[in-house]
Amino acid sequence: MNVSVEDHHELHRYEILVDGELAGIEVYEVTSGQIALVHTEIYEKFAGQGLAATLVTHALSDARARGLLVLPQCPYVAGFIAKHAEEFLDLVPESRRAEFNL
Prior knowledge:
The chain has helices at about 50-65, 75-85, 85-90, and strands spanning about 5-10, 15-20, 20-30, 35-40, 70.
């Protein structure tokens, strides 16, 4: 199984592909120095393969590389950050963490 993630700026989303087939998306909005991750979706055919975690890890790592703070508006992303706080909590502005239950 070949898994890749692509950023489609024009669509405001990351796409995860499995063997070249679109398996899910992470919708985002970028504003001055921040990226809001607003919706994570893995299509039913690809559910249960850990793809959401792969997709969100890529989005968070890309935000770090781009110097963006993260607003985890998607409940899945907020939960993922909570579970991986040592690695990703610093991306969420401290003043906004309570808003996302972090």
